[in-house]
Sequence to fold (81 residues):
Amino acid sequence: WCDFEIPNRTDFNFPSEWQFFLTIMFSSMMADMTGFLSHSTFHRPWLYKNIHKIHHEHTVSTSLATIDFHPIEHIFSNVIP
Fold:
């Protein structure tokens, strides 16, 4: 009933536990670093005034306040990293 072949993985060449752990740690560190650098960049005067200020207008830290940001900031701080 389907026109394409469904791939079937039968080789079972999984990474070792150590490789898996290192991959997760490296990915987490890269995500934190890119998030920090992009957030720091948006604190430059022009970017802060025109884009990032929306994120800091809330006086109470809530989960909804953390996701209130400009669409450009979303692209460069969340999507690309």
About this structure: The mean pLDDT is 85.
